[in-house]
């Protein structure tokens, strides 16, 4: 009898988890974006996604992470922003909510190649499904929306933080990760160890002030 009860509870739990994962999204797509501190240029080789249905989306995002390069070394790359933006990226269409995100990128100021795996918890997916009211200071109006953006901040040394947010909503930090060095180097070893060049503005900053390790 006890064995039957345990089996029934396990079956109900499995059905419950399946129904959560199969809930239709309340929006057409979600956004994956990347940013970096001032002057700390990053090239994303690939960001691959596995959603809760087991679907794989390779190179869902690649390219430059958003950052500022103010002239005359007037920017400040140190520390974490008080409010993170969504970053440069793409809307992931045809996908359910994410389960894992795999990222490989080049930190051009070091230079170094990193890779990491971001686990997206069910509690984070619940935040992304939850309808919320938010006040938009720009126009003084209240809106109803969703946290349908995942923002990833990549900094030198392979330090990473991840937030989930939405229009006019305060982002919520969901992960802090130390990435590992990819021993193959840039482009999986296919570039003979050659990295892309820094922009002149970023190079001027780094040549004068260096990389502010320890501020992140």
TrEMBL record:
Top-level taxon: Bacteria
Listed name of the protein: Uncharacterized protein
Organism: Pseudomonas helmanticensis
